[in-house]
Automatic annotation (TrEMBL):
Transmembrane segments: none annotated. GO terms for cellular component: lipid droplet. GO terms for molecular function: oxidoreductase activity, acting on the CH-OH group of donors, NAD or NADP as acceptor. SUPFAM superfamilies: NAD(P)-binding Rossmann-fold domains. This is Estradiol 17-beta-dehydrogenase 11. Pfam families: adh_short. It comes from the Eukaryota. It comes from Ceratitis capitata.
Length: 216
């Protein structure tokens, strides 16, 4: 959601001044799927689609002076996310090198920046070869994106049943507490609203959309 809110905050002024540049930081995981990174890949695929659709819409509306660039790097070192990623053939990237490459991409008005650049060729192969070849290559390229995950040993039947019963009891207690809390807050909110709302007020409160919300 940060892409949407940030763009809505700055795009109106860019349109007003007929100049600007929006850089979307995505990832190579926005073009290919990686095991153990389903949620991460989904968010990056969304970022890539957001950049492409926004660029097209700006062109259609005649705002061709506003540029967009989608940055898609490989795994970056020292970010705390992929320090121990198990990847083959393609080394993890230095964050300073990636930052320098992003600046160059913005200055050159590149539409899509793949880091490192030679992976662009591998991406083209994704739509050329059958899935068996593509999936095998991806599994070998990144055998394990989260090697720090440790499988837990299976519990004995008695211990497993006891743990399941404890979880059910805890879940029931949490649901009761949650329902009670919601009921209390709903009552307080209704009381406060009825005290502050004038008797002649309309039941429908209309709000004028902000400038940023009317842009896209």
């Amino acid at each position: 959601m940060a892409h949407f809110w940030t763009t809505k905050a700055f795009l109106p002024k860019m349109i007003e001044q007929q100049r600007g540049h929006i850089a979307t930081i995505a990832s190579l995981a926005g073009h290919v799927g990686i095991t153990k990174l389903v949620d991460y890949c989904a968010s990056k695929f969304a970022a890539v689609g957001f950049d492409e659709a926004l660029r097209l819409e700006l062109d259609v509306l005649g705002h061709s002076n506003i540029q967009t660039t989608c940055i898609c790097p490989f795994f970056i070192q020292a970010t705390g996310m992929f320090d121990d990623v198990n990847a083959r053939w393609v080394p993890t990237l230095n964050p300073n090198d990636v930052a320098d490459r992003i600046i160059v991409a913005i200055k050159k008005n590149e539409k899509i920046t793949i880091i490192p650049g030679y992976i662009r060729l591998l991406l083209s192969l994704k739509w050329t070869f059958p899935w068996g070849c593509v999936g095998g290559l991806l599994r070998r390229l990144v055998p394990d994106a989260a090697p720090h995950g440790i499988a837990q040993k299976p519990l004995a039947k008695a211990d497993a049943a006891k743990q399941q019963q404890q979880q059910q009891n805890a879940g029931t207690a949490a649901k009761v507490a949650h329902a009670s809390l919601i009921s209390k807050h709903t009552t307080d909110l209704s009381t406060d609203f009825s005290e502050t709302l004038p008797k002649t007020a309309s039941l429908l409160v209309q709000r004028t959309p902000s400038l940023g919300e009317r842009v896209l």
